[in-house]
Structures are given as C-alpha cells and as structure tokens.
C-alpha cells in the first residue's frame, strides 16, 4: 500500500504523532527505512541500490527472537528520527547517524542480555570487557557497511565519514542501559542548574545518549493496547533467558522467571517510574517531540498500577487460602509452587 509513496510522504508519515512503527509489514519497514535514508541524500550522496542492499542486509542480520528483532530495530530508528527531526541543534549528519544507529543498534541480538553473556562465559563477553552486546552490534554495522554495494557512507568526504561512524558508535554503545543512570544524572544536573550548552559537544553527546535510550524504550511509551502486546513479546524473551539460567543451575531473577508471572505488573511499574519516565521527561526538556511518548508512559503507568493492585489482591487471597487450608482438618486441593504461579494469568 505504501510502495508508491514519495520520500517526502514517508517523512511526513513517520513523524506524525499517530504513526505506529508496529503497523507496517516487514517489507514496508524496509521501504520506509530506504525512503528515510534517502531523505538525507544531500549529505550522503549515496545510491538508492546501495541503500536497498544495506537495509535488506540489516534486516537479514536481526535474529528471529521474540523482541530484539528487525521490528524493534526499525521502531527505534523511526522513534529517534521523530525525536530529532525538528531539532535545529542537530545537523543533518547527526540526524542521519541517529537513524542508522537506531536501525542497527541491536543487530544479531540473541535474546539474552550482557549479564547472561558474562555469567554463561559466552565468547562475546570474553571479547569485550564492557558492553559486549553493544560492541557486537556496532561491529556488525561496520561489517555490513564494508560489504560491496552496501556502503551508504562511501560518497562522503573522509571527514564526514569519520564523524558519522564515530556518532553511530557512540549512539549504539549508549543503548547499554547499564550506562543510563550515570548519563541521566549528569544531564539532569546540567538541565537543573542551567549549564547545558548545545554548543558543547560533550553536553550534546549526553543528550544524544538519553535520546537513544528514550527511543530504545519506545515500546513502553505506546498506546496501552500496543504497549501491552510489546511487553508480552519482551517477557517471552526474558522467560526464555530465565529458562536457560535455570537449565544451567542458576536461579533466574523474578523478571525472567516464568514461575513468577504475578511479578510482571510490579516490574513494569518500577521500570516506568525509575527508568522510562525519568528518561523521557529529561529528553522532553530538550526535544519536545518526546511529549506524546511521555503522555503514553504516564497512562501506561496507571494501567500497570491497576494490574499490580489486582495481582497483589490475588496473592493475598492465595496466602489466606493456604493458611486456612493448613488450619482446616478437611484437606482442600493445595495451590502452591508452579500451580500457584500458573494461576496468575495477566
Ligand atoms: Zn534495543
């Protein structure tokens, strides 16, 4: 349906507040990416065939995991495009770097996190002392760019080439959430005491990192029905990781333990309160395009709080039933262990 749309239409379409990156088919996501990269042709001067080959190869190098897949990569690229498009403080080279970094930021993700790679002594963890996944995603990006007919940077001046590659590296590495609290603390201090300076490259990199984090968390900032669906996919991936932990003889954390389904609302409330909302609030001070995402995040927080209350009521009821059962001389069927966990269907 979108095949004949021009670059301009795609640009308008993807920056519209009601646009959802999750409504496009996999091919439409490729087409949208090509059109949006083409919108930077003034700085890249790259050929359209190279853009198609690059984008299709990026798609191919996302694995079929439940959450960190091609759809997630595209959604982050579209979100960072929307957050930065109107901002005159970012130059076209930076905006182009943001889009490519968003598209590539989780390349070859295996559905497991850095902690899992370290504890399971995976080879990637041995290769990089910090942020092993993010370094791998960046290196995958460079590998694709080095392939014949896929280098969408090849017609840039060597100075621009170096700048874009450095930007892409910084933006992809910033998606390691382990860095989030340190980065947000620094930017928050600058925002509060009024020392943030757009002309200071270090200040701008801090904001760029937070903007990437905000874009990476876009699935928590969608309208409720979509956010719920994306949360289910995320938990499918978490639980598969938890299963691997258990198989290896380690106890998974509650977030990744499918026997603790009732913990889902609490974890979402905590994540929104401590990470997503503070991140978007801060980004919104500099990039007003973050406002609709922030609004949805607050609405979703209310929904998750309601579900958390229901979950707590169910848990209290089960504890009471079990206590009564212990006291009763007539034995009732017991609800415990795995069965108890299964009774929490969200
Ligand atoms: Zn991501």
From TrEMBL:
AMP binds at residues 68-72, 106, 216, 268. PROSITE patterns: PDEASE_I_1, PDEASE_I_2. Zn(2+) 1 binds at residues 72, 105-106, 216. Keywords: Hydrolase, Metal-binding. One of its GO terms (biological process) is signal transduction. The keyword Metal-binding applies. InterPro entries: HD/PDEase_dom, PDEase, PDEase_catalytic_dom, PDEase_catalytic_dom_sf, PDEase_CS. Gene3D superfamilies: 3'5'-cyclic nucleotide phosphodiesterase, catalytic domain. Zn(2+) 2 binds at residue 106. One of its GO terms (molecular function) is metal ion binding. It comes from the Eukaryota. The keyword Acyltransferase does not apply. Residues 1-311 form the PDEase domain. This is PDEase domain-containing protein. It comes from Medioppia subpectinata.
């Amino acid at each position: 349906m979108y095949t004949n749309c021009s670059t301009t239409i795609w640009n308008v379409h993807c920056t519209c507040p009601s646009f959802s990156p999750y409504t496009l088919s996999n091919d439409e996501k490729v087409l949208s990416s090509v059109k949006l990269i083409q919108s930077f042709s003034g700085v890249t001067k790259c050929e359209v065939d190279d853009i198609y080959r690059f984008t299709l190869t990026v798609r191919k190098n996302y694995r079929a995991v439940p959450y960190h897949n091609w759809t997630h990569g595209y959604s982050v690229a579209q979100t960072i495009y929307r957050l930065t498009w109107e901002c005159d403080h970012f130059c076209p080279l930076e905006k182009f770097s943001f889009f490519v970094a968003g598209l590539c930021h989780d390349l070859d993700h295996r559905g497991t996190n850095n902690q899992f790679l370290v504890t399971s002594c995976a080879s990637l963890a041995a290769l990089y002392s910090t942020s092993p996944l993010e370094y791998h995603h960046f290196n995958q990006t460079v590998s694709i760019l080095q392939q014949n007919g896929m280098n969408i940077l090849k017609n840039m001046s060597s100075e621009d080439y170096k700048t874009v590659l450095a930007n892409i590296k910084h933006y992809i590495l910033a998606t390691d959430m382990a860095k989030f609290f340190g980065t947000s603390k620094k930017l928050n201090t600058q925002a509060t005491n009024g020392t943030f300076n757009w002309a200071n490259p270090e200040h701008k990199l801090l904001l760029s990192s937070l903007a990437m984090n905000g874009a990476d968390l876009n699935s928590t900032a969608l309208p409720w029905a979509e956010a719920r669906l994306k949360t289910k996919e995320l938990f499918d991936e978490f639980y598969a990781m938890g299963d691997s932990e258990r198989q290896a003889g380690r106890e998974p954390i509650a977030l990744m333990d499918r026997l603790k389904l009732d913990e889902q609302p609490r974890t979402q409330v905590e994540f929104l309160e401590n990470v997503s909302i503070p991140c978007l609030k801060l980004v919104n001070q500099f990039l007003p395009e973050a406002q609709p995402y922030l609004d949805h995040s607050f609405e979703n927080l209310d929904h998750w709080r309601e579900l958390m209350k229901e979950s707590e009521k169910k848990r209290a009821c089960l504890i009471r039933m079990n206590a009564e059962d212990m006291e009763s001389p007539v034995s009732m069927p017991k609800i415990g262990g795995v069965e108890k966990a299964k009774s929490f269907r969200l």
